Amino acid sequence: ESYDMGGHDTYMHKEIHEQADAVDRALRGRIDDRFSTVHLGGLNLDARDARAVRRVKILGCGTSYHAGQIGAQMIEELARIPADAEPASEFRYRNPVVDPDTLYIAVSQSGETYDVLAAVQELKRKGARVLGLVNVVGSAIARETDGGIYVHAGPEVCVVSTKCFTNMVVSFGLLALHLGRTRDLSVADGKRIIAGLRKLPEQIAEILANEAEIEKLAGEYADAKSMMFIGRVRGYPVAREASLKLKEVSYIHAEAYPASELKHGPLALIEPAMPTVAIVPDDDLLEKNRAALEEIKARSGRILAVAHQVQEKADHTIVVPKNEDELDPILMGIPLQLLAYYTAKAMGRDIDKPRNLAKSVTVE
Ligand code: G6P
Fold first, then answer.
1. Per the confidence metrics, is the pTM higher than 0.80?
2. What gap in Å lies between CA 242 and CA 337, rounded to an integer?
3. Which residue blocks in 111-186 are alpha helix, DSSP H?
4. Atom of ligand 1 nearest to the CA of 161
5. N or C end of the chain: which has fewer CB within 10 A?
């Protein structure tokens, strides 16, 4: 990829459209069909090390932190290792207990974010094993970690991250599969996940081909002063990232909540002027999510659903292709990148360089 705009009006638009190729690159040469697993050359973690991991702690900032939240769920689901993600800055200022059986993973597009780098250095000083999940080859975080995965998204210029986020989540899928296959993930499940990963580039292209519909929807919601994003379990970090994307580029206030928490406060905000974007995958929580849509509808809230089938209670549904349940979060955020882009465009925002933000924050 070059820095050429290639006919796109912004880098954000260009980078959104590069995602099918970027994911293809993240998968290339890594899948091992013989053992239904993946090879991650730079990981520096042999099977014995992998099996000795008792917990996984993922650290990152902004979009990378959200990618880490999805990654933590994938690792728990596929490898059955307790995992969670935390903002790197919070972690480093709370004198964390550093545990020798925990695998720490630093996630960063630039590999230069100061808070993440400082967390890595503190962990190393205390003798922890730290891996990097990084885009920029040879960056500070890539150099200071014990090993890791390059996400191979290619250069990302727009301040708000799109294709790198997607490739981070795909890379977490690879890592979760790898860790899972050193433990109890069956060959059949390994095969199932590999088949799902291979489908991603084509499914991403399918979502992007729907762009005109999403542009129209952005027109419908651009008058909102504030928007709510909801999701449950796998859908919750997707909602958080979509909400961040919208506020970064359009400056519309947005907040993300687990759908299950609506009744504990945010329902009070629901009215026609506060639309809700709901992540509604066809998984075992479908009925629970539908119930949340009903609660919102009963309070005259407008709803835009991102789902695998049209949602009756929603005013609009963006239908995305179904993958394996564990990999659905990779796809469900993509139409919402376009929604953020078209909303910002309709409002005349400086899309590639939103006010007050920097691509990488290398100071404290
Ligand atoms: C900045 C950018 C965000 C990014 C975050 C982490 O705040 O504006 O888009 O997610 O830094 O950056 P990193 O390079 O570590 O992924």
1. yes
2. 7
3. 114-125, 140-144, 163-181
4. 9
5. C
Which ligand 1 atom is nearest residue 164's CA?
16
pLDDT tens figures, 53-105: 999 999 999 999 999 999 999 999 999 999 999 999 999 999 999 999 999 99
Nearest Cα to Cα of residue 133 among 109, 100, 159: 109
- Span 283-302, pLDDT tens digits: 999 999 999 999 999 999 99
185, 172 Cβ separation under 8 angstroms: no
Any ligand 1 atom below 6 A from CB of 139: no
> How much distance in Å is there from the Cα of 63 to the middle of ligand 1?
6
Sign for the CA dihedral angle at 350, 351, 356, 361 comes to negative
What is the best residue among 359, 362, 363 to mutate for testing ligand 1's pocket, by most ligand atoms within 8 Å of CB?
Answer: 359
Distances (CA, A) of 49 to 40, 79, 237: 14, 14, 29
Average pLDDT, the chain: 96
Burial of 263 (0-12, 13-18, 19+ CB in 10 A): exposed
Residue 1: pLDDT band by 50, 70, 90 thresholds? very low
Task: State how far the Cα of 107 lies from the Cα of 57, in Å rounded to an integer.
Answer: 11
> Which pLDDT score is estimated for 274?
94
Q: Catalytic residue at 359?
A: yes
Judge contact between 330 and 169, C-beta under 8 A.
yes
Query: From ligand 1's centre to the CA of 35, what distance in Å?
Result: 36
Q: Take atom 4 of ligand 1 and give the residue whose Cα is closest.
A: 62
pLDDT at residue number 360: 87
> In a mutational test of the pocket of ligand 1, which residue from 113, 134, 363 has the highest number of ligand atoms less than 8 Å from its CB?
113
For residue 343, report the distance from its CA to the centre of ligand 1, in Å. 21
**What is the residue with the minimal CA distance to atom 3 of ligand 1?**
62
Which residues are paired to 59 by β-bridges? 86, 106
Q: Which two tokens stand for residue 357?
A: 């933000």
Complex prediction ipTM = 0.96
Residue ID of nearest Cα to ligand 1 atom 15: 108
| Closest ligand 1 atom to Cα of 61 | 6
Ligand 1 atom closest to 357 (CA):
8
Q: What is the pLDDT of residues 206-237, one digit of tens each?
A: 999 999 999 999 998 888 999 999 999 999 99
